[in-house]
Amino acid sequence: MPDTLTGAVSQPETVLAFDFGTRRIGVAIGNSLTAAARPLCIIEESTRAGRFARIEALLAEWQPDLCVVGLPLTLDGEEQLASVHSRRFANQLHGRYGMRVVLVDERNSSLEAQSLQGRHAPDDALAAAVILQRHFDAASSGLLLNLSA
Questions:
Q1: Which residues share a beta bridge with 45?
Q2: In what order do the strands lie in the sheet with 101-105?
Q3: Could you read off the pLDDT of 45-54 as tens digits, one per residue?
Q4: What are the distances in angstroms from CA 58 to CA 4, 51, 63, 78?
């Protein structure tokens, strides 16, 4: 992708995205060169240690340059209790693993995932892909919104 200040083409980045939930975490993978996101997996471990062990394994396997975490906002764009949980999760990714983390507005991502996949199928990983695709689309249009972790 061209750097908006210098016009130089930057190196492609592997990006992992997370749709954080207290019971499940959807995970998607993508690359900034292709600007395409795809669902990867759903983390359903019941303990914090189990969830972070899975995340650590994914980070080791995919070696991402960046993590994207969905930030759940109300329809009015206000933060809510779930926003606090997502921000904490993003901070943990940064603190535990030294990852660069970007928060992306995830409003209606689950509804979009349900419309693509079907209402009763697990959609967490597809929702993470929707969130990641929004990040890529914003980056390519120069409208990247960094909500900061």
A1: none
A2: 36-43, 25-31, 14-20, 66-71, 101-105
A3: 999 999 999 9
A4: 31, 11, 8, 31
User: Closest Cα to residue 85, out of 145, 140, 42, 25?
Assistant: 25
- Which tokens sit at 38? 């795809």
51: Cβ contacts below 8 Å, ≥ 6 apart: 25, 43, 45
Instruction: Yes or no: say if 129 and 39 are a contact pair by the CB < 8 Å rule.
Output: yes
Query: What are 88's two structure tokens?
Result: 């904490």
Residues sharing a CB contact under 8 Å with residue 133, sequence separation 6 or more, in sequence order: 30, 36, 37
pLDDT at residue 54, rounded to an integer? 97
Tokens found for residue 69? 């975490």
| Token pair recorded at residue 64 | 């991402």
The type of residue at 143 is L
Which residue has better confidence, 79 or 1? 79
| DSSP letter assigned to residue 120 | T
